[in-house]
Amino acid sequence: MRQWYSSILVAIISFSLNAQQLSKQDYERAASFRLARLSGKKVFNLNVVPNWNADSTGFSYITQQKNNKQFNKIDFAKMQAEPLVDQERFARQLTDLLKIPVTANDLPVTNTRYKDKTHLSFTSAGKNFILNLADYSIGPMKDETGNEMEAKSPDGQWIAYADRHNLFIKSTKTGETKQLSKEGRKNYEYASYYGWGDIMEGENGEREKHFAVQWSPDSK
To answer: Which of 22, 40, 113, 162 has the greatest number of C-beta atoms within 10 Å?
Structure first.
């Protein structure tokens, strides 16, 4: 047993001595293998995000190579990958819009999504735009965020909202309201949640208001 402990002690001392010999270059080399330093430089497409069409007939996505960013689409009727846009033509329009040189291989665009068959929404330079695929004209996209404390049903006939810690719905046609819950109270509200970024001061401090409901596809 004593010999076993001695072997462990020797191994620990040896490891410590070797660890002390590591240089700054050793740490920099190890850090160079971190995913954040490899992604988009030596390895690509580790996280390909699909953007669904508004009518669910397909989706678009972006693939990245060393010297090229390709915008693609999948149409479920064809079930094959195709170019999403004419990137050369799109680059010329973006150059005029952003007032900076834009190349077809590196379009500064994210969140591409079909609004309908001839219009594509996208984000660039922190703003949202609409691309008309018929003539490649670009215009600003209207703000569609609406009231964050409300949620309209898919058929547009009802609006869900919270009041006095409980959940209600209101008809968009008649204004009629229906109360769906009655047991809600402070800190136990219906259709709410605690956010990780909420700031509360004191045990009974007020927290940020949140609202979240999920309508069924048939609005029932």
So the answer is: 162
Q: Beta partners for 127?
A: 124
Residue 36 DSSP symbol: H
Rounded-to-integer distance, Cα 160 and Cα 171, Å: 9
Structure tokens at 183: 């047991």
> Which region holds residue 35: left if phi is over 0, alpha if psi is between -120 and 50, else beta?
alpha
Q: Are 114 and 60 in contact (CB under 8 A)?
A: yes
C-alpha span between 159 and 135 (Å, rounded): 37
Closest CA to 192 of 205, 208, 203, 204: 208
Residues 66-100 have pLDDT tens digits of: 788 899 999 999 999 999 999 999 999 999 999 99
The answer to whether residue 38 scores a pLDDT higher than 80 is no
pTM value is: 0.51
Of all residues in the chain, the percent with pLDDT exceeding 90 is 36
